[in-house]
Design a protein that fits this description.
By secondary structure, the protein is an alpha+beta fold. It has one domain: Hotdog Thioesterase (Thiol Ester Dehydrase, Chain A), CATH 3.10.129.10. It has helices at 8-16, 25-28, 60-76, and strands at residues 31-37, 40-45, 83-94, 104-113, 117-125, 131-143. It has a 6-stranded antiparallel beta sheet.
Length: 148
């Protein structure tokens, strides 16, 4: 498949529909892309015993990674064929301890997009709507090296 000819939204729809394999990070931090549209996405994520810190709670890196994925993929949906992106700043607020073995939603949306910058926010929430953590991210938009 020639990914250089597909938009970011088209690529992520292929992932969400199981046509192409998800990135390996989706195994490390169990997450599934369940909703995708231009400028927004939603993952379902579940922390387990593999994500604990030395005190026995869920490591903050779990929330940070889930939120980085949600903000990044929200920006990814806005990419034109031949564009790529990378997160250059991620600001995470940990508000409540992340529960183990409970599915949460990581919901991301773009709040600003220019030719070279994408800014997105994401929330990690429970099924009851309880907010566990929130993040904003700045992403740099670049042309793919293969297009030059």
């Amino acid at each position: 498949m020639d990914f250089e000819k597909l938009s970011g939204l088209e690529i992520l729809k292929l992932v969400a529909n199981g046509v192409i394999s998800p990135p390996t990070m989706a195994i490390t931090i169990p997450m599934k892309l369940v909703s995708i549209e231009n400028g927004a996405c939603e993952f379902h994520v579940t922390a387990n015993k593999m994500h604990l810190n030395p005190m026995g709670g869920v490591h903050g890196g779990f929330a940070a990674t889930a939120l980085d994925s949600a903000t990044g993929c929200a920006v990814h949906t806005t990419l034109q064929p031949g564009e790529s992106y990378g997160t250059i700043d991620l600001n995470v607020k940990m508000l409540k301890p992340i529960p183990q073995n409970e599915e949460l939603k990581a919901i991301g949306k773009v709040i600003y997009r220019s030719r070279r910058i994408g800014v997105a926010e994401a929330s990690l929430v429970g099924k009851d709507g309880k907010l566990y953590s929130h993040a904003t991210a700045t992403c740099m938009i670049a042309e793919s090296k293969n297009e030059r």
